[in-house]
C-alpha cells in the first residue's frame, strides 16, 4: 500500500484471493528510509487505515493483517514474498509517468519474487463469478511447465476455463535470410501437456488458442468474442511475454481488458 488508487485496486483484487485460499490478507506499507520522517510515517498510517476501512466495509471481508516497515518498497516486498502465497501490486504508483510502462516497483518485484506476483490493472472492478478465463502464456523456454501448472491451479481455484497461448520459437537466421519461426512453433510440447492436464483434471476446461497470432492480438480477439481474460499467467523470464504485457502497448491492452497479470515465481523454473 502506498496510498495510491492503484494500490487500493490491488487490495480489492486480493480480497477474493485471500477468501479462496482461506488465508488472511496482509496490507504492507513500506516507508523508504530516505523519505521525510514524520510526513512519511503519517502518510503510511493513513494509507493502511484507509485500505483497512474500505475492505472491512465489504460484504465478505477476509481476516486482515497490516504492517508498516521502514525500508525500500522493493526490498520489503521481496522479503515478504518469502512467506506470502501471492504478492498483489497496483500497476502504477504515485511516481509514474503517463503513457509509460508498468511501475518500476511492480516490475522489479515481479521478476525477482519468491512467490507469484499479481499486477492488478486500474480498471479492475470486481470479480464477476465464473465469467471469463485464465490465459497461460508460454514461449518455449524452461519456464513453460511452471506457467502451465500455475495457470491450471489458478483456473481450478476460480472455476474458470484455462486457455494456453504459445508464442512461436525463433531459430537463428541462416545467412541472407531474416529470422523466421521454427516449424512447428510449439504445439508438440503444449499438446502433450494439454493431454496430461485433461487426464489429471477432467473437471478443467482446457484448450490452446492462437498459435499464429501475436499475444496482444489474442487478448483483443478474446475480449471482442466475450471471453474476458480474468488472469494472464506468465513467467518472470526476460526477455519474454512479460515484457510484451508490461510495455506501453501491452499495458493499454491489459487495462482495456481489465486483466490481472500473474507472474509465477522463479522457483517454478530455476
TrEMBL record:
SUPFAM superfamilies assigned: Adenine nucleotide alpha hydrolases-like
UniProt-listed Pfam families: Usp (PF00582)
Positions of the UspA domain: 1-121
Domain of life: Bacteria
Name the record gives this protein: UspA domain-containing protein
Lineage, broadest ranks: Bacteria, Bacillati, Actinomycetota, Actinomycetes, Mycobacteriales
